[in-house]
Every structure is written in structure tokens, then in C-alpha cells.
Amino acid sequence: MKLNGKKIIVFVANDYEDLEAWYPILRLKEAGAEVTVVASDNVEGMNCKSKHGYEIAVEEKAANIETKNFDGAVIPGGWAPDTLRQCKNTLRIVKELMENEKLVASICHGGWVLASADVIKYKKLTSTSAIKDDMKHAGADWVDEEVVVDDNLITSRKPADLPAFMTEIIKALS
After folding, report:
1. 52 carries an active-site annotation
2. How confident is the model at residue 1 (pLDDT cuts 50, 70, 90)?
3. Which of 34, 11, 4, 45 is nearest to 113 (CA)?
4. Domain count along the chain
């Protein structure tokens, strides 16, 4: 398979957007990648519930992650990014992946994590329009497009963009 040997983090916290977590998890696994579901350290327990009540098992907390062991990360949206961005280890992971030119992919409100990790200055990206001002204030060149690729950063706006988002992620990891 295309992504055999690739190891990817998918971040979660309570109130994650169902499709924006599960679609990448399933597509990456289908392509042969090993996916690790990671919660920020400030999440209690080892399960998170989505906006619609679907539970996902957490495999690791951010404090236990060494980025040298991973090829990239996906940051789903929903309200979970507000929790994720308050965790210093989540921000460390995102910053280290960006600095090492490994994949960082964010959709919808996931851009909040990028802004808090201080990794989007001068980057062209997209997100849900609800946080476009946050992206601009963090120094990004925000555009309203289905998917945006800027070096190792891949961003999309909403669940309807997932097919294009995942196409670019898989292409970048291949």
C-alpha cells in the first residue's frame, strides 16, 4: 500500500468533529499508514466524545509523543482544538513537526492549534471562515479555498472538503 511504514498522529479532545477525525483515520489506515490517536494532556481518561457523542479511544497523551517517531499529524476541527491548543505538549508536537518539515494538516477550527503553536506566520492557509481573523492575526495569508498546500502544511475549511484534503495528505506522504 501507498503509505506503508508511515506513522501519523490524529489529535482528539472532547467535542471533536466526527467526520474530520474519522475520515482521515480510516483513509490513512486504508492507504497503509499507522495511525495513533493522541489526546492533549488536559483530557481526562482515555476516551473522547465527538460533538455528536461518538466515542474514540485515545492511544497516547501528547506528553508521551516523540516527533522523531512520526511522519506527521492531522488536527481535526470541532470544538476540540480549543482544548488541544491549551496543552503545551500538543503545541510542542506541532511546532517540532513543522520545524522538521514533516506533515501538519489542519481542518476547520484546527487552525487554532496552528496559531497557538506560532507556526503560521507568512503561511498561506485556509480554515473555517469563523476563525479567519485569528489566522490573519497570527500572521497567516488566509484564503477561502477547498484545500491549501504550503510546503508541509495542508489545510481545509470543512467536512465537505475532506476528499480534497485527504488527497493532498496522501500525496504529501507518498
Report:
1. no
2. confident
3. 11
4. 1
